[in-house]
Amino acid sequence: MTVPIAKLSFWGVRGSTPTVDPATWRYGGNTPCLELIAPDGTQFILDCGTGLRMLGSRWAAPKGGKNPETHIFVTHYHWDHIQGIPFFSPLYVENNEFHFYSFRSKFLGRDSLKQVFEAQMALPYFPVDMSAMNAKRKFKEVDGGDSFTIRENKITARWLNHPQGCLGFRIETPAGTIAYATDNEPGDAKLDESLRELAAGADILINDAQFTPEQLATTRKGWGHSSWLEGVRVAREAGAKTLVLFHHDPDSTDRMVDSLLKRAREEFDSVFAASEGMVITLGAPGEGVQAHMPGTRTALRREAQFRAKVCGLTEGGKAFEEETMVRDLSLQGALISLKHLPQLQSELQVTMEAPGENGVQAMKLRGYVVRIDEGAEKGHVAVGVVFTD
Ligand SMILES: [Zn+2]
Ligand SMILES: [Zn+2]
Predict the structure, then answer these.
(1) Are 13 and 40 in contact (CB under 8 A)?
(2) From the CA of 13, which ligand is nearest?
(3) Under DSSP, is residue 96 helix (H, G, I), strand (E, B) or coil?
(4) What is the whole-number distance in angstroms between the Cα of residue 52 and the centre of ligand 2?
(5) What is the pLDDT of residue 200?
(6) For the whole model, what pTM was predicted?
(7) pLDDT in tens, 360-388
(8) For residue 162, how far is its CA from the centre of ligand 2 (angstroms)?
(9) Shortest-distance ligand to the CA of residue 18
(10) Which of 123, 189, 232, 325 has its CA at a distance of 20 to 30 angstroms from the CA of residue 57?
(11) Which is it for the CA torsion 103, 107, 111, 116, positive or negative?
(12) Which ligand sits closest to the CA of 182?
């Protein structure tokens, strides 16, 4: 019997507005869009932020036969959750079929999401109108409290505390359960409870972590967002296994997100900061959750031969120090072969020996673990790091 496996990909993780600031490139600047492929092949898309365009441009054409079913859940109608729709190229392809799910907004009335489509493509805001969208589209209204199944997966929707409303979605697959709770603020007893119901025993809880706990208590109170600390509380109380910090503030640099993640990891065992290109596998044998991050995207890579000393923390949280060779180097990062298994999204001190005027000199760099693969040598892992300031 084969083990059921689900794959969760992060295409957009930024809140409020996209960013192209170089200081935000590591976590990524596209607004919310997640993709979940369930073990039965059903494709779920969660939110249609600008990350949706990237998903569309990598759209895999079906290898013969029918296109797989795609079910798209839109949590609410704020720009950052809908702005990718007109730029999602599969919507312009005739044989594709999409099932959209969202709530009836009291500001829009019937067919709220359909109206959002039309409004986004109305003149003078967009060059072509709806008639250019040839894919079949079906719209379904969902309400907080609804629960239904799509093939072998169970979906539950719950209201979250957010201006003009927002739905959280829980998807239970045979490989595991994810709870998607973007855009929510703690402080409403009833909705705090529904967030915990959504997250109960989930393998992955994706929670709004836009603000620091300090901002949330003061200047950003009432803005509709949450913090890493609230995420930790919810994960603990609901018994969720892994917490993913999501909806990063557009003003948060990568270093700021690093520090939020660090603080969250001091309080809860399994935490990741959502990162564009990150893939989490559920149900894989051996571990409950495996996360992978893409390599450096644009780096010019060169083969190199630098002796290096690497210090960091293992997955189990133990400090290690190891001598190795760096054989693949770019200005942005390096691929380092290690015997120790460092934690993904942790920091390594990489001290490389570089020939200088007065003999060999030590070059100290801070490397951030973005990727771990099986190593070329036996008993080693290939660790991809990005150098940070
Ligand atoms: Zn948002
Ligand atoms: Zn919002």
Answers:
(1) no
(2) 1
(3) coil
(4) 17
(5) 98
(6) 0.92
(7) 888 899 999 988 888 888 999 999 898 88
(8) 7
(9) 1
(10) 123
(11) negative
(12) 1
